[in-house]
Specification:
It is built from 7 helices and 8 strands; from the N terminus they run ααβααβαβββαββαβ. By secondary structure, the protein is of the alpha/beta class.
Amino acid sequence: MTILEAIRLRHSVRSYTDQPIGAEALTALQEAIDACNRESGLHIQLITDEPNAFGKSLMARYGKFSGVRNYLAMVGPKNDSDLDGKVGYYGERLVLLAQQLGLNTCWVGLTYKKQADVVQIAADERLRCVIALGYGTTQGVAHKVKDVGKVCRSRTGEMPDWFCRGLAAALLAPTALNQQKFKFTLLPDNQVEAKAGMGYFSKVDLGIVKYHFEQIAGVENFSWK
């Protein structure tokens, strides 16, 4: 499965079967997590066979989650000014890998219970959110997307194919409440500026959509401003 296929096929899933994640998939995920942590300075953790974050949480029931026993804990330094952006970018990198491995996922900002005895969080770190992980009872459904013209503009008088492809992929990215509060601007010299709108998780969302954009637009075609 290509990264574009994973982007197109991946949808949020809240209900999971009790099938354990296979050893090969767990190894691939852990290797990718280790790489993400090295690159970003985050402390992402893979938690498996742990039902309490969702099973005993009133908030999880409110969020209509069921059968969640595996998740990614998105932990990072409190003093990192770009913590949210990194959480979104590297978390979505792992989400799309999970899709390629035949797994389902869901970003979860509030509707879970923090398990202090399970997730390792140092005094100078914080748990920003989690990502539910496993084999879904369904493959989820596609979310509505905004018209591309509402999330972009060009200061060069044109929109090259790579920019349009990247935008299309960005619009397929998951965002909080599917609000898609972001804006991409094409600048001279193939520079791209991406800005988040207002909202509690809007900077996490921006990291997610930037990863989608980057993978499909092609890093050889532009540079971030």
